[in-house]
Specification:
The structure is a homodimer of 134-residue chains. With 134 residues, chain A is of the alpha+beta class. Chain A has six helices and five strands, in the order H-H-H-H-E-E-E-E-H-E-H. The first copy, chain A, binds a DNA duplex (30 and 30 nucleotides) through helix 4.
Chain lengths: 134, 134
DNA sequence: GCTTAAAAGATAATTATTATCCTTTGATAA
DNA sequence: TTATCAAAGGATAATAATTATCTTTTAAGC
């Protein structure tokens, strides 16, 4: 979806910096704040780290993006989509999405626990195909 | 299992501080470093934060404990056990284990991705039973 | 074009974590 | 059981990550 619309729908003002952040997330999938900062600097030479933190937090609050945390990994951010699995390679740190449907698992967990579940953070880690042979 | 044995089996020296850490994890399930520090201080009044960080890191390396990270939550640590689900209540911050077997999910993910998976960090969050009615 | 609240930028402050250095202690073997 | 020594503990400095504060700039509605 159009980033401008995405922002408006989440009650966030449209600014060039925010458009840049979303555009980067669309291209790279997951980004951490440092990546954001380094990449954004090329386009907005005077951008401040504070701006990035503030925007990430605002977007989190409005549930436009979601945060993924996992052992040995900086917090990463991605645009909200269906619950899915994140795969992390411990060797090369490749970090990718795997679109296995988690509905069944979540429903199951919800029934067994009586929790009303809204959000998932599922990270499986190990070795990617390449790193297994090396 | 006996904490002393647990430490030895993981090539870690047995110290009173380490026994204290494990004992706390056995009682509380998950702990973060701050909790560790505050609780341990009662027993070891001169314990240093550095000791806790160093021990947590040593135990992580030896795979005696595992780290759970999730949005809006400090890193928590627990003694290694079978892959399972963590439930987090966004309202009261209750954080509990749910023993749903994740083998099938992990096998599935492994097949689809060709990753050799070793570790899981699965956190589902929402509202616990109590907080739904309030 | 104005107006205004919100966002951006600069930077200080805070918090979390790691590094360093010296002292103490657990494990081993004489 | 005690002597040895590498490893662990404790104190604290250093670093990294994040948040807070304040001033300037800008997006959005009239």
């Amino acid at each position: 979806m159009n980033s401008e619309l995405l922002l408006r729908e989440h009650d966030l003002k449209v600014t060039p910096q925010r458009l840049g952040i979303l555009s980067l997330m669309k291209i790279k999938g997951h980004v951490d704040v440092e990546e954001l900062f380094l990449t954004m600097k090329k386009q907005f030479s005077s951008i401040s780290l504070a701006t990035l933190y503030k925007n990430v937090n605002a977007m989190l609050e409005k549930q436009l993006i979601t945060e993924i945390k996992a052992p040995k990994l900086k917090a990463k951010y991605e645009i909200v989509k269906e619950p899915h699995i994140h795969l992390l390679c411990k060797e090369c740190n490749e970090f990718v999405d795997l679109d296995i449907n988690l509905e069944t698992l979540i429903d199951d967990a919800s029934k067994k626990s009586n929790y009303q579940l809204e959000e998932s953070c599922v990270v499986l880690s190990g070795l990617c195909e390449k790193c297994q042979t090396n």
